[in-house]
Amino acid sequence: MKKLTLLIACLLVLSVMSFGVTIKIIIHTNPATVDALNAINEKFTAKYPDIKVDMTDVPVAQYPQLKQSRIAAGDVDIIENQTGFDLTPQSFMKGVNVPDWLTYIQNGDFLEISDQPFVKNWNPAAIKEACTYNGKVYQINMGTVAFNGIFYSKDIFDKYGLKVPVTWTEFITICKTLKSKGIAPMTSGAKDQWPINMMSSAFVAAQEADAGAFVKDLWTGKRKFNDAQSLKIFNKMAEWGTYFEQGVTSVGYSDVIGRFVAGKAAMMPDGSWQGANIEAADASFKYGYFAIPGDTKGKIPPQLAGKYDIGFVVYAKSSNKDAALKWMDFISQKENYTELINAIAFIPTMPGVTMKSEFVNSLAPINQQFRTAWERYFVTPKGLGKYGGFNPMQLKVFGGDVATPKELANLAQKDWDDALKSAQ
Q1: Which domains are assigned to the chain?
Q2: Which residues contact 242 (CB under 8 A, 6 or more apart)?
Q3: Which of 272, 245, 263 is nearest to 188 (CA)?
Q4: Tens-digit pLDDT profile for residues 184-222
Q5: Are strands 140-146 and 305-314 parallel, antiparallel or unpaired?
Q6: Number of other CB atoms surrounding residue 68 within 10 Å
Q7: Which tens digit of pLDDT belongs to each residue from 140-164?
Q8: Which helix (H) or strand (E) holds 136?
Q9: Radius of gyration of the chain (CA)
Q10: Are the C-beta atoms of residues 293 and 167 closer than 8 Å to each other?
Q11: pTM of the complete model
């Protein structure tokens, strides 16, 4: 019996020596990211020929289910976590949904990597803000994206002598000037609704110095959706809505880039990730990006706000943890990360990285104080009604059913109050 056991053990060793191991990675589909990671994986297997990489990607809407099923089956080694560790329930919050990343940590599915040497390669602030829970590091993050800004056509701005606005008054003056010249100030993929609603974070960022504190004040009753300060946010969203091209609610997100580069509108509110798509549509198109401003001019231009995007974690129950950690170390090396980040054009989360993208480099003046956006703090009570938040698409100017910003603010507060009562 002992001889048989020894023989089996030897065969297993020979099997590993002959065929090595295969690490399985799951991510959501984004062509630029998938292509860049495939290139990284080829370099990785060239360095570690005994480790193969099997990467699966699915559309973003299907990814949560893929992640859940593969973790449940133990059929994964490296998992993409699509955000930083945000939307974290706080002690003053009652009756809320727990984000999936926290559930996975609590279930012991994410491997703690606090002591791994490669963690030190990353920006300490990014590690603390996006990758750490209860003092322990579980993921590495590939970069940040902003979505409180507006793309603008440099040619149109130059033609009419327009300058990047740093106050709300300056921004509205630009919109009025363009409209008086017969030019649509802005376009958006409003047919899909989320591109407009996403920009609510921009208006909160322009009015509130601390989005997290604002959320806490809403929960504790110190602030209201319909108080004077919050009403400024609703008023600006409504005024903003009057400067889009006619028929904007019929424009799909897949069409908006084409309309922007064709000059159908001078500006396009959207996330910074669209820079790469603008260049793909028309490499000669000259464009810039500015953060939506608030009421006052500060010492520096209005700053970017957004989220940490694309993190990687190791499945804690993987039988290939050593190989998976080698992959994590490999992508954490500056040379390899630089290749990746230049391909996907995110804002880097590793210090000293040289970006080829003129657009990403141009964001430096408005990225001195990058902030996590409002929507990544806005943990809500279960069962919150449809008006409970800042949602521009509910206004009539965008085809919604609410006539005025004050009416929408009152409806938002009512839904919030009702949800809080149910949560107690």
Answers
A1: 2-146+307-372 (3.40.190.10), 149-303+380-423 (3.40.190.10)
A2: 397
A3: 245
A4: 999 999 999 999 999 999 999 999 999 999 999 999 999
A5: antiparallel
A6: 13
A7: 999 999 999 999 999 999 999 999 9
A8: strand 136-137
A9: 24
A10: yes
A11: 0.85
